[in-house]
Amino acid sequence: MDVVIVAVIGALVGGVTAKKRGGNGKDMAQYGAVFAILFALLGLILSVIYTRMTAG
After folding, report:
1. What is the number of structural domains in the chain?
2. What is the domain range of residue 17?
3. Whether the predicted pLDDT of 56 surpasses 90
4. Is the pLDDT of residue 47 over 70?
């Protein structure tokens, strides 16, 4: 569940980044997808680390 939330945040950050750079809708979609994948991967890694550290 946490990974999905982080992916959505990444998509929003990517869309805003593309819009600030003057991109059109396709650019915003591409940036959103890339940032969502990157944020989800980072969230997954952090989730695994946290789970391994807290599990007995």
Report:
1. 1
2. 2-51
3. no
4. yes
